[in-house]
Predict the structure.
Amino acid sequence: MLNELQVKQVKKYLRKNNIESRLIFGDFLDHICCMIEQKISEGASFEDSLQTSFSQLPGDEIKTIERDTLKLLNMETSFSSRTSLLATIPFGLFGLTWAFANSGISVPQLIHLFLFWSPMISMFVLLGIGWIKNFPRWSFPAIGFCLLFSMYLMMVSIPGISDDVLGMWAWIPLLITLIISFIFKPGIEPIKKIVERIKEEPTLILFALYGFSPLFLWIFCDEMYSRWMIFIALISSLILSSGIYLFLKSDKKRTRVLSIIFSGLLAVILTYTASHIYWMNH
Amino acid sequence: MYGYQITQKVKELSSQKIVITEGALYPALHKLVEEGILVTESEWVGNRERKYYLLSESGKQTAVTKLEEIKESILMLVQLFDLKPLVYDVK
Protein backbone atom coordinates (compact mmCIF):
# COMPACT_ATOMS: atom_id res chain seq x y z
CA MET A 1 0.00 0.00 0.00
CA LEU A 2 1.41 3.43 -0.95
CA ASN A 3 2.18 5.80 1.89
CA GLU A 4 0.97 9.39 2.20
CA LEU A 5 4.01 10.93 0.50
CA GLN A 6 3.82 8.52 -2.41
CA VAL A 7 0.11 9.22 -2.93
CA LYS A 8 0.94 12.93 -2.82
CA GLN A 9 3.32 12.47 -5.75
CA VAL A 10 0.50 10.99 -7.81
CA LYS A 11 -1.82 13.83 -6.77
CA LYS A 12 0.87 16.31 -7.80
CA TYR A 13 1.12 14.65 -11.21
CA LEU A 14 -2.65 14.93 -11.75
CA ARG A 15 -2.70 18.57 -10.62
CA LYS A 16 0.28 19.38 -12.84
CA ASN A 17 -1.67 18.00 -15.76
CA ASN A 18 -4.61 20.19 -14.90
CA ILE A 19 -7.10 17.48 -13.97
CA GLU A 20 -9.88 19.53 -12.38
CA SER A 21 -12.94 17.29 -12.27
CA ARG A 22 -13.46 15.68 -8.87
CA LEU A 23 -14.79 12.53 -10.54
CA ILE A 24 -11.83 12.00 -12.83
CA PHE A 25 -9.25 13.09 -10.26
CA GLY A 26 -10.48 10.49 -7.74
CA ASP A 27 -10.71 7.71 -10.32
CA PHE A 28 -7.24 8.27 -11.70
CA LEU A 29 -5.61 8.78 -8.33
CA ASP A 30 -6.70 5.30 -7.32
CA HIS A 31 -6.04 3.86 -10.78
CA ILE A 32 -2.44 5.08 -10.97
CA CYS A 33 -1.79 4.06 -7.34
CA CYS A 34 -3.05 0.55 -8.18
CA MET A 35 -0.75 0.42 -11.23
CA ILE A 36 2.21 1.43 -9.08
CA GLU A 37 1.35 -1.07 -6.35
CA GLN A 38 1.05 -3.82 -8.96
CA LYS A 39 4.53 -3.04 -10.29
CA ILE A 40 6.01 -2.86 -6.79
CA SER A 41 4.49 -6.27 -5.99
CA GLU A 42 6.29 -7.60 -9.08
CA GLY A 43 9.60 -6.43 -7.65
CA ALA A 44 10.12 -2.93 -9.13
CA SER A 45 11.15 0.08 -7.02
CA PHE A 46 8.63 2.84 -6.23
CA GLU A 47 10.44 5.39 -8.41
CA ASP A 48 10.56 3.05 -11.43
CA SER A 49 6.93 2.05 -10.94
CA LEU A 50 5.93 5.71 -10.70
CA GLN A 51 7.72 6.66 -13.89
CA THR A 52 6.44 3.63 -15.81
CA SER A 53 2.87 4.30 -14.70
CA PHE A 54 3.14 7.97 -15.69
CA SER A 55 4.47 7.00 -19.11
CA GLN A 56 1.65 4.47 -19.53
CA LEU A 57 -0.92 7.09 -18.62
CA PRO A 58 0.42 10.44 -19.91
CA GLY A 59 -1.14 13.61 -18.54
CA ASP A 60 -2.55 14.72 -21.89
CA GLU A 61 -4.30 11.36 -22.24
CA ILE A 62 -5.94 11.74 -18.82
CA LYS A 63 -6.94 15.29 -19.75
CA THR A 64 -8.55 13.99 -22.95
CA ILE A 65 -10.43 11.35 -20.93
CA GLU A 66 -11.59 14.09 -18.55
CA ARG A 67 -12.81 16.19 -21.47
CA ASP A 68 -14.61 13.22 -23.09
CA THR A 69 -16.26 12.21 -19.83
CA LEU A 70 -17.49 15.71 -19.06
CA LYS A 71 -18.80 16.09 -22.59
CA LEU A 72 -20.65 12.77 -22.31
CA LEU A 73 -22.20 13.95 -19.04
CA ASN A 74 -23.07 17.36 -20.48
CA MET A 75 -20.72 18.89 -17.90
CA GLU A 76 -18.18 20.46 -20.28
CA THR A 77 -15.83 23.06 -18.88
CA SER A 78 -14.60 24.39 -22.21
CA PHE A 79 -16.52 25.05 -25.39
CA SER A 80 -15.84 25.67 -29.08
CA SER A 81 -15.10 29.18 -30.34
CA ARG A 82 -18.53 29.23 -32.00
CA THR A 83 -20.44 28.46 -28.80
CA SER A 84 -18.30 30.86 -26.78
CA LEU A 85 -18.92 33.65 -29.31
CA LEU A 86 -22.67 32.97 -29.45
CA ALA A 87 -22.83 33.28 -25.65
CA THR A 88 -21.52 36.85 -25.91
CA ILE A 89 -24.45 38.01 -28.09
CA PRO A 90 -26.58 39.41 -25.21
CA PHE A 91 -23.52 41.33 -23.97
CA GLY A 92 -22.99 42.74 -27.46
CA LEU A 93 -26.64 43.82 -27.59
CA PHE A 94 -26.24 45.51 -24.21
CA GLY A 95 -23.25 47.36 -25.61
CA LEU A 96 -25.30 48.67 -28.55
CA THR A 97 -28.21 49.68 -26.33
CA TRP A 98 -25.96 51.42 -23.87
CA ALA A 99 -24.03 53.18 -26.66
CA PHE A 100 -27.19 54.54 -28.31
CA ALA A 101 -29.03 55.35 -25.10
CA ASN A 102 -26.18 57.48 -23.76
CA SER A 103 -24.96 58.97 -27.03
CA GLY A 104 -27.61 61.63 -27.16
CA ILE A 105 -28.37 60.62 -30.76
CA SER A 106 -32.10 60.47 -31.40
CA VAL A 107 -33.29 57.35 -33.17
CA PRO A 108 -36.78 56.38 -34.41
CA GLN A 109 -39.06 55.05 -31.68
CA LEU A 110 -39.16 51.53 -33.17
CA ILE A 111 -35.36 51.23 -33.19
CA HIS A 112 -35.26 52.72 -29.72
CA LEU A 113 -37.69 50.08 -28.44
CA PHE A 114 -35.77 47.31 -30.18
CA LEU A 115 -32.48 48.51 -28.74
CA PHE A 116 -33.93 48.78 -25.26
CA TRP A 117 -35.64 45.40 -25.10
CA SER A 118 -33.44 43.15 -27.24
CA PRO A 119 -30.67 42.58 -24.65
CA MET A 120 -33.16 41.84 -21.86
CA ILE A 121 -35.20 39.51 -24.07
CA SER A 122 -32.04 37.78 -25.32
CA MET A 123 -31.05 37.02 -21.72
CA PHE A 124 -34.46 35.51 -20.94
CA VAL A 125 -34.31 33.50 -24.17
CA LEU A 126 -30.84 32.27 -23.19
CA LEU A 127 -32.23 31.24 -19.81
CA GLY A 128 -35.02 29.30 -21.51
CA ILE A 129 -32.62 27.52 -23.87
CA GLY A 130 -30.38 26.85 -20.87
CA TRP A 131 -33.25 25.16 -19.03
CA ILE A 132 -34.05 22.95 -22.04
CA LYS A 133 -30.39 21.94 -22.35
CA ASN A 134 -29.90 21.32 -18.60
CA PHE A 135 -28.10 24.60 -18.02
CA PRO A 136 -24.70 24.28 -19.68
CA ARG A 137 -22.13 26.78 -18.46
CA TRP A 138 -22.86 29.26 -21.25
CA SER A 139 -26.33 29.81 -19.81
CA PHE A 140 -25.09 30.78 -16.33
CA PRO A 141 -24.78 34.54 -17.04
CA ALA A 142 -28.46 34.42 -18.06
CA ILE A 143 -29.39 32.83 -14.71
CA GLY A 144 -27.57 35.57 -12.79
CA PHE A 145 -28.95 38.30 -15.02
CA CYS A 146 -32.58 37.18 -14.86
CA LEU A 147 -32.52 36.84 -11.06
CA LEU A 148 -30.76 40.15 -10.40
CA PHE A 149 -32.75 41.96 -13.09
CA SER A 150 -36.02 40.81 -11.50
CA MET A 151 -34.79 41.94 -8.08
CA TYR A 152 -33.74 45.30 -9.52
CA LEU A 153 -37.06 45.67 -11.35
CA MET A 154 -38.91 45.24 -8.04
CA MET A 155 -37.62 48.69 -7.04
CA VAL A 156 -38.48 50.35 -10.36
CA SER A 157 -41.68 52.13 -11.30
CA ILE A 158 -42.71 52.30 -14.96
CA PRO A 159 -44.64 55.52 -15.73
CA GLY A 160 -47.79 54.70 -17.65
CA ILE A 161 -48.09 51.28 -16.03
CA SER A 162 -47.92 52.16 -12.37
CA ASP A 163 -46.76 55.10 -10.27
CA ASP A 164 -45.72 52.68 -7.57
CA VAL A 165 -42.71 50.36 -7.74
CA LEU A 166 -43.32 47.05 -9.53
CA GLY A 167 -42.73 44.89 -6.46
CA MET A 168 -43.55 41.23 -6.98
CA TRP A 169 -44.85 41.97 -10.50
CA ALA A 170 -41.21 42.28 -11.51
CA TRP A 171 -40.89 38.48 -11.39
CA ILE A 172 -43.52 37.96 -14.10
CA PRO A 173 -41.06 37.84 -17.06
CA LEU A 174 -38.94 35.25 -15.23
CA LEU A 175 -42.02 33.25 -14.32
CA ILE A 176 -43.29 33.26 -17.92
CA THR A 177 -39.85 32.18 -19.17
CA LEU A 178 -39.77 29.31 -16.68
CA ILE A 179 -43.30 28.19 -17.55
CA ILE A 180 -42.49 28.14 -21.29
CA SER A 181 -39.21 26.29 -20.62
CA PHE A 182 -41.04 23.82 -18.39
CA ILE A 183 -43.49 23.05 -21.20
CA PHE A 184 -40.56 22.14 -23.45
CA LYS A 185 -38.70 20.23 -20.72
CA PRO A 186 -40.81 19.20 -17.75
CA GLY A 187 -39.20 18.11 -14.50
CA ILE A 188 -36.59 19.44 -12.13
CA GLU A 189 -33.54 17.89 -13.79
CA PRO A 190 -32.23 21.30 -14.97
CA ILE A 191 -32.28 22.55 -11.35
CA LYS A 192 -30.42 19.44 -10.20
CA LYS A 193 -27.84 20.08 -12.92
CA ILE A 194 -27.28 23.66 -11.72
CA VAL A 195 -26.58 22.38 -8.19
CA GLU A 196 -24.32 19.64 -9.54
CA ARG A 197 -22.34 22.08 -11.66
CA ILE A 198 -21.93 24.59 -8.83
CA LYS A 199 -20.79 21.80 -6.51
CA GLU A 200 -18.22 20.78 -9.11
CA GLU A 201 -17.03 24.39 -9.61
CA PRO A 202 -18.32 27.01 -7.13
CA THR A 203 -16.82 29.85 -9.20
CA LEU A 204 -19.79 29.40 -11.53
CA ILE A 205 -21.72 31.57 -9.05
CA LEU A 206 -19.32 34.40 -9.91
CA PHE A 207 -19.88 33.68 -13.61
CA ALA A 208 -23.65 33.83 -13.09
CA LEU A 209 -23.35 37.22 -11.30
CA TYR A 210 -21.14 38.41 -14.16
CA GLY A 211 -24.26 38.23 -16.35
CA PHE A 212 -25.61 41.34 -14.64
CA SER A 213 -22.42 43.37 -15.20
CA PRO A 214 -23.41 45.08 -18.51
CA LEU A 215 -26.69 46.28 -17.07
CA PHE A 216 -24.94 47.36 -13.88
CA LEU A 217 -22.48 49.50 -15.86
CA TRP A 218 -25.28 50.92 -17.96
CA ILE A 219 -27.24 51.90 -14.84
CA PHE A 220 -24.02 53.39 -13.51
CA CYS A 221 -23.90 55.68 -16.57
CA ASP A 222 -27.50 56.83 -16.20
CA GLU A 223 -28.06 60.50 -17.12
CA MET A 224 -24.67 60.73 -18.87
CA TYR A 225 -25.30 61.84 -22.44
CA SER A 226 -22.33 62.40 -24.70
CA ARG A 227 -21.08 61.23 -28.12
CA TRP A 228 -17.91 59.74 -26.69
CA MET A 229 -20.02 57.54 -24.44
CA ILE A 230 -20.52 55.43 -27.56
CA PHE A 231 -16.86 54.40 -27.39
CA ILE A 232 -16.91 53.83 -23.63
CA ALA A 233 -20.03 51.67 -23.92
CA LEU A 234 -18.71 49.66 -26.86
CA ILE A 235 -15.24 49.15 -25.39
CA SER A 236 -16.60 48.19 -21.97
CA SER A 237 -19.02 45.72 -23.56
CA LEU A 238 -16.22 44.31 -25.69
CA ILE A 239 -14.09 43.81 -22.56
CA LEU A 240 -16.98 42.12 -20.74
CA SER A 241 -17.71 39.94 -23.76
CA SER A 242 -14.08 38.82 -23.95
CA GLY A 243 -14.38 37.78 -20.29
CA ILE A 244 -17.31 35.52 -21.19
CA TYR A 245 -15.48 34.19 -24.25
CA LEU A 246 -12.32 33.33 -22.34
CA PHE A 247 -14.26 31.78 -19.46
CA LEU A 248 -16.07 29.43 -21.83
CA LYS A 249 -13.07 28.69 -24.03
CA SER A 250 -10.48 27.91 -21.39
CA ASP A 251 -10.02 24.46 -19.88
CA LYS A 252 -8.02 25.83 -16.94
CA LYS A 253 -9.91 26.92 -13.86
CA ARG A 254 -7.40 29.66 -13.00
CA THR A 255 -7.67 31.22 -16.48
CA ARG A 256 -11.45 31.09 -16.26
CA VAL A 257 -11.64 32.85 -12.91
CA LEU A 258 -8.99 35.43 -13.80
CA SER A 259 -10.65 36.21 -17.14
CA ILE A 260 -13.91 37.32 -15.55
CA ILE A 261 -12.26 39.09 -12.61
CA PHE A 262 -9.89 41.08 -14.85
CA SER A 263 -12.41 41.89 -17.55
CA GLY A 264 -15.00 42.88 -14.94
CA LEU A 265 -12.52 45.12 -13.12
CA LEU A 266 -11.21 46.66 -16.33
CA ALA A 267 -14.71 47.50 -17.55
CA VAL A 268 -15.63 49.01 -14.15
CA ILE A 269 -12.43 51.10 -14.04
CA LEU A 270 -13.01 52.36 -17.58
CA THR A 271 -16.64 53.24 -16.94
CA TYR A 272 -15.89 54.81 -13.55
CA THR A 273 -13.12 56.96 -15.06
CA ALA A 274 -15.39 58.06 -17.91
CA SER A 275 -18.18 58.92 -15.51
CA HIS A 276 -15.78 60.84 -13.25
CA ILE A 277 -14.49 62.91 -16.18
CA TYR A 278 -18.04 63.49 -17.43
CA TRP A 279 -19.38 64.77 -14.11
CA MET A 280 -16.31 66.99 -13.61
CA ASN A 281 -17.22 68.80 -16.82
CA HIS A 282 -20.99 68.99 -16.20
CA MET B 1 -15.55 -3.47 -8.52
CA TYR B 2 -13.30 -0.43 -8.86
CA GLY B 3 -11.89 0.91 -12.14
CA TYR B 4 -8.46 -0.74 -12.09
CA GLN B 5 -10.01 -4.02 -10.92
CA ILE B 6 -12.42 -4.00 -13.89
CA THR B 7 -9.56 -3.61 -16.40
CA GLN B 8 -7.64 -6.49 -14.76
CA LYS B 9 -10.71 -8.73 -14.54
CA VAL B 10 -11.50 -8.28 -18.23
CA LYS B 11 -7.89 -9.09 -19.12
CA GLU B 12 -7.97 -12.17 -16.93
CA LEU B 13 -11.34 -13.46 -18.24
CA SER B 14 -10.34 -12.92 -21.86
CA SER B 15 -6.88 -14.50 -21.40
CA GLN B 16 -5.23 -11.09 -21.98
CA LYS B 17 -6.99 -10.72 -25.35
CA ILE B 18 -9.33 -7.88 -24.43
CA VAL B 19 -7.75 -4.78 -22.97
CA ILE B 20 -10.12 -2.06 -21.81
CA THR B 21 -8.39 1.29 -22.02
CA GLU B 22 -8.98 3.91 -19.36
CA GLY B 23 -10.33 6.18 -22.09
CA ALA B 24 -13.08 3.68 -22.84
CA LEU B 25 -13.75 2.60 -19.27
CA TYR B 26 -14.18 5.76 -17.20
CA PRO B 27 -16.46 7.80 -19.53
CA ALA B 28 -18.70 4.72 -19.84
CA LEU B 29 -18.77 4.14 -16.08
CA HIS B 30 -19.74 7.74 -15.38
CA LYS B 31 -22.42 7.70 -18.07
CA LEU B 32 -23.90 4.53 -16.56
CA VAL B 33 -23.89 6.15 -13.12
CA GLU B 34 -25.70 9.17 -14.57
CA GLU B 35 -28.28 6.89 -16.16
CA GLY B 36 -28.85 5.13 -12.85
CA ILE B 37 -27.65 1.75 -14.11
CA LEU B 38 -24.65 1.86 -11.76
CA VAL B 39 -24.28 3.28 -8.28
CA THR B 40 -21.05 4.11 -6.50
CA GLU B 41 -19.75 3.45 -3.02
CA SER B 42 -16.54 4.91 -1.69
CA GLU B 43 -14.12 3.74 0.94
CA TRP B 44 -10.70 4.84 2.11
CA VAL B 45 -7.89 2.51 1.14
CA GLY B 46 -4.72 3.64 2.87
CA ASN B 47 -4.26 7.28 1.93
CA ARG B 48 -6.70 7.51 -0.92
CA GLU B 49 -10.36 7.12 -1.68
CA ARG B 50 -11.51 4.18 -3.77
CA LYS B 51 -14.77 4.22 -5.68
CA TYR B 52 -16.63 0.98 -6.28
CA TYR B 53 -19.08 0.74 -9.17
CA LEU B 54 -22.06 -1.52 -8.48
CA LEU B 55 -25.17 -2.45 -10.45
CA SER B 56 -28.24 -0.68 -9.12
CA GLU B 57 -31.53 -2.54 -8.71
CA SER B 58 -32.79 -1.26 -12.07
CA GLY B 59 -29.30 -1.83 -13.50
CA LYS B 60 -29.50 -5.53 -12.68
CA GLN B 61 -32.61 -5.84 -14.84
CA THR B 62 -30.98 -3.81 -17.63
CA ALA B 63 -27.90 -6.06 -17.48
CA VAL B 64 -30.05 -9.18 -17.94
CA THR B 65 -31.79 -7.61 -20.95
CA LYS B 66 -28.50 -6.47 -22.49
CA LEU B 67 -26.92 -9.90 -22.02
CA GLU B 68 -29.89 -11.47 -23.80
CA GLU B 69 -29.41 -9.02 -26.67
CA ILE B 70 -25.70 -9.87 -26.91
CA LYS B 71 -26.50 -13.59 -26.84
CA GLU B 72 -28.98 -13.14 -29.69
CA SER B 73 -26.45 -11.13 -31.71
CA ILE B 74 -23.80 -13.82 -31.26
CA LEU B 75 -26.22 -16.55 -32.32
CA MET B 76 -27.16 -14.51 -35.36
CA LEU B 77 -23.49 -14.16 -36.31
CA VAL B 78 -23.04 -17.92 -35.85
CA GLN B 79 -25.90 -18.52 -38.28
CA LEU B 80 -24.72 -15.88 -40.73
CA PHE B 81 -21.19 -17.18 -40.96
CA ASP B 82 -22.23 -20.81 -40.70
CA LEU B 83 -19.96 -21.54 -37.74
CA LYS B 84 -19.96 -24.83 -35.84
CA PRO B 85 -22.93 -24.59 -33.47
CA LEU B 86 -21.36 -26.81 -30.78
CA VAL B 87 -18.62 -24.28 -30.07
CA TYR B 88 -20.93 -21.30 -29.87
CA ASP B 89 -24.07 -22.83 -28.46
CA VAL B 90 -24.77 -20.74 -25.40
CA LYS B 91 -27.92 -22.56 -24.26
Remarks:
- Residues 17 and 61 of chain A are 10 Å apart (CA to CA).
- The mean pLDDT of chain A is 92.
- Chain A has 14 helices and no strands.
